[in-house]
Amino acid sequence: MSATALLRFVLVPCLLAALAACGLFGNVPEYRANDYVKALVRTPDDRAVLAALAAPDRDPQTIVAGLHTQVAIDYLRTQHRQGRRHDFLISATRPEGSGRRLVAITVTPLGGPPGEEPVRIRVRVEEYAGAGWRVTEVQAE
To answer: What total of structural domains would you count in the chain?
Structure first.
């Protein structure tokens, strides 16, 4: 394998993966959705973080849609307060028109009993001029 091929097929993908892991692509809609769900679970009282990820014209607390979603978020928060860790996985993305996406986040509690089901959350994000991608709705499945 030549040095050019090694660079192209090994080092470049590793570099891109490292940059993504560092959050340098943080305004990507999937990352914004995932960061919002993490903040709802881990730091729900930090309104500055939630407001920075939410749509500029929306109150971050009103983005959670419906009682079943609030119950799912409260369940994850309670586990977090009790010391449980969670894996937040971006499981799917679907375009919903120009500048709009629906992102599916799967939250899996780690270290729980066998067969414990993950919580699936759908997050709607929209692109706002000058503000980037922002969360407009959070709904549990």
So the answer is: 1
